Amino acid sequence: MAAASAAARLKVGGRPQLAAQQTARVALGRLGEADDVVSIIAFLASAEGRWVTGQVIDASGGTAL
Prior knowledge:
65 residues, elongated, mainly alpha
């Protein structure tokens, strides 16, 4: 899973200018939170996700449009 925007929150702590630059790159207009990717991870780890193989799921809020 590619969770770029969620990871970005960790990189900009205490740096509002960098946070604004990162946020401007996200189509949804905000940096991601852990809760934004938890359900994807839970699905992939569950029986329902057993048939998903060899995929990269982009959970970036639209950074990679």
